[in-house]
Amino acid sequence: MTDVHTHEQELLKEFLAGATLFLGPDPEIMLDHDIAPISERERGALDRVTDTHMAGVVRSRVEAGVNEAFAMSSQTGACPGARWGDSVCGLFTANGDLAISSNGGILIFSVLTQHAVKFIAKYWIDDPSVGVRPGDGFAHNDARYGNIHNTDSSVILPIFHDGELIAWVGCITHVGENGAIEPGGMPTIAETPFDEGLKMPPIKLVENYELKRDLITFLQNSTRDPKLIYEDMKSKLYACIRLKERLEETITQYGVDPVIAVLRGTLDDTKEEVKRRISEWPDGTTRSVAFSDGTLRENLLLKINLEMRKNGDQLVLDFRGSSPEFQNRSINTQAASMKGMLAQLFLGYIWPDLPRNQAVLAPIEIVLDSRSVLNAADEVPNAQSMMTFFFGYSAGQVAVAKFLYSATNRYTKILAPWYNMIQTFIYGGMTQHGEPAANLCADLNGMSGGARDGLDGENAIALASCAMSDLGEQELSEEENAFVQIISKKIMRDNQAFGKYRGGQGYQMALAAYESTTWGFASFCVGSKFPTISGLFGGYACPAYPLAKVQGVDVFDTFKHDPGSFKWTIEEIMNERPFEGAVYSTHHMGFPFELAKNGELYMCTQGAGGGYGDVLERDPAAVMKDLEQELISDWTAQEIYHVVYDPSSFVVDPEATAQAREAERDRRKQRGVPYADFVREWVTEGPPADLPFYGSWGDREVIYAGGYAGQPHVRMRSDAIQDVVVPHPREVRIASLEATVAELQAKLREQ
Amino acid sequence: MRVNITEYLSIELDDETWHCRHCDLALSSARSNYKEALLVYDRDPREIHRPILDQDRYEFTYAPDPKWCRIIEYYCPGCGTQMEAEYLPPGHPLSHDIELDIDALKARFAAQPIGGNQ
Q: Is B56 on the interface with A (CB under 8 A)?
């Protein structure tokens, strides 16, 4: 009887295994950020490789191969992202764990590619309709299978030795265009995952080391820039093949065991070292909050809540109490994407000396509410996940700094938050060469660094998620595309996060379409009402950043007929309004794609890194240097930094400055209120009724959502979050106008 | 024994007390929220991040919206040093941002002399 029962169970199991209707994202893979259990093969290799000197040489050889592949990808890639460093190459164990990543490029990509490799290993190796053989290659781009968003795509090759699968290599690049509802690959107006363009789970795109043209043609046929898709896939494939060759050469010289042992050993060593370093922090809890002020379609205030708990060698990042997910907005983040950005935080800014692999996060526990905006379901869009996971990273920077200051050892300087928004323009249309194109300006890589303990932040230096990226050559872009960046890389005065050490400053950009009848722009940032990053230890945050437009003008006509009237800063253009008859406006930075007329101006500003420490402690000489370089105004020197000086010579009056600063200290003591009195007056039970607020207020188990477009705040338990559905901006506008009409009609009737 | 916790705060392990590093004022028990001993001020963000664009003409000016965002400044009651600046929506509870295990901290520094970063 038991045998029959067992047989039936087996039959049922076999039937169900063969009758799976859809191999969707696998939670077992997606929610696990630890490294895989060590395999017998890996254990055997580690036991047999006892020569640590030789293992070190093998590691260096492999790292050199990964870096060579990255350089090759950067130099041959067609998409702007590949050329400017928004890509990465990596080497994975047979189990799919990222063991060694290239030194350059966006680390978060490779940390997230492991999920796709594990999916291939779990589902395709034994599937007779797919299989994994030498010469095969796979591609993916869907964040639900491991990624940030589907504008980035991978090529992954299995590495065999004597018929044994021993590793995987991968290259992933920010490609840009992907056939989404808006050009350029990161739609702000997507309301469902199906508005976001191509969504590739891991698919076999390569056989015998050749791209399958039928599938490539399908991908090309689904996007606005078909040539880019083909060129870029080839570039990634050949970078992977180069890395495969370097790996094979290493095996030929040293044997396969040392390679397997180095890959596994690097992961194990990294994990143990991370635990050791965590144990150097003081035990306790730090807390931090960050606020995103929009969904890219409207201004709403989304809270990102972080409690960081450390005990011994255990570290927990608890994000419960953060905003709920949005059913019809693209700013949701998959949990794996959030973890990828946290890995970037630790590898890029806390322990940059550690080997670049996924084990850095393995011993760290991450706690997220289900269906929060940082742990969104597969059914909601996620193309703009950066709008929320960057805030998790920024909250993490502050919380970590408060542990690190008293840690036994630090491995970097204490750092105020890096600027965290991708201030740039997406462009698209027909180029001056008659070619379709859609992509983005590399200015997103110009984020400014936070101030450091003892040093100002670096101006416009690097993307938060990519310490080694480039701004690119604007002129090259202009040769290929139908726009000109008229104001470019010009640091904006007073765009500074103030502090004892100031944050790095960002630059202003003004673009205009040129020589195309079909060209347009879009942008995607939040932070026009509420600064996206804070300062540290009394330092201030960055400013808030608008999109500025001037329409009804062709500035190229101005250059022809009256070039002297053009103004070279956003401040002057918008306040002095030099173009007669033009329309000047500002907006939040969530700006859907819009066709631009020749010579109309679209302007934005790269953000500032956070300030560090009390402004009254800033060296007056440093204030004067900033003033002399026009980084700040006299108003800032006098009203923020309280420096007294001769404006004609920038010579500081030390005694008067000391007096001015002492006077400001006295004013602080006069206006400051004792904490208990302040809390009594300040703290409210919930968010103001007219503030669109999403997330916990005091109790992290109670989530608020609402306060927008006439919707009252609702309260939900954090373990029973319901999706937020936001009305279409056009409907909100119509409702507002109808209310105004009704009001005016009522007044008319009264008259 | 004094352990520096932030740019402006230290803890005296012997009597378990928060201190201002600028004026050395003893603030409160190290087992409590140090902010409870500070002076607090609700700052209109436009006073720090002044509108660079004409606020009479434009909705978005580089200044944060004071109806959405306030700067909560924390001052040492002894010397007026600004120890923290927190950006919060109006009425939002203040963060208890540092809560250390004092027993563990004492044990750590009892076991090893202050060095490294201290």
A: no
Question: What ipTM, to 2 d.p.?
Answer: 0.97
pLDDT at A2: 57
Flag if A405 and B7 touch (Cβ within 8 Å).
Answer: yes
Q: Do B81 and A284 touch (CB under 8 A)?
A: no
Residues 6+ apart with CB under 8 A from A428: A177, A182, A183, A184, A224, A437, A438, A439, A519, A520, A522, A593
Dist. CA A310–CA A279, nearest whole Å: 8
Of the candidates A222, A256, A277, which is a domain's last residue? A277
Condensed to tens digits (0 to 9), the pLDDT of residues A385-429 reads 999 999 999 999 999 999 999 998 999 999 999 999 999 998 999
Whether A256 is covered by a domain: the verdict is yes
Examine the domain organization and report whether A61 and A209 are in the same domain.
Answer: yes
Contact A534, B87 (CB under 8 A): yes
Provide the sign of the torsion angle of the four alpha carbons A112, A118, A124, A125, taken in this order.
Answer: positive
**Nearest-CA distance from A168 to chain B in Å?**
41
For the question of whether the overall pTM of this predicted structure is more than 0.80, the answer is: yes
CA distance A55 to A567: 60
Single-letter residue type at A118: K
State whether B95 and A605 contact (CB < 8 Å): no
What average pLDDT does this structure show over A130-134?
A: 97
C-alpha to C-alpha distance for A499 and A505, rounded to whole angstroms = 13
- Report yes or no on A2 lying in a domain: no
**Residue A1 pLDDT exceeds 60:** no
Tens digit of each residue's pLDDT (9 = 90 or more) over A481-540: 999 999 999 999 999 999 999 999 999 999 999 988 899 999 999 999 999 999 999 999
pLDDT digits (tens, 9 = 90+) for A582-596: 999 999 999 889 999
Range of A597's domain? Answer: 417-613
Residue A285 is nearest to which of B37, B99, B118, comparing CB atoms? B99
**Which chain B positions have a beta carbon within 8 Å of A494's beta carbon?**
50, 52
Query: Which of A245, A277, A309 delimits the end of a domain?
Result: A277
How far is CA A648 from each of CA A153, A305, A636, A651, rounded to the nearest angstrom? 55, 47, 16, 8
Residue A9 is assigned to a structural domain of this protein: no
DSSP, collapsed to helix, strand or coil, labels residue A3 as: helix
Which of A463, A452, A556 minimizes the C-alpha distance to A497? A452
Nearest to A569 by CA among A605, A541, A542: A605
Look at residue A296 and tell me if it is in a domain.
no
Query: Could you tell me if A503 and A535 are in contact, meaning their C-beta atoms sit under 8 angstroms apart?
Result: yes
Domain positions in chain B are: 2-111
Question: Which residue of B57, B74, B75 is in closest CB contact with A669?
Answer: B75
List the alpha helices (DSSP H) in A297-351: 335-345
Number of domains making up chain A: 2
Tens-place pLDDT, residues A245-274: 999 999 999 999 999 999 999 999 999 999
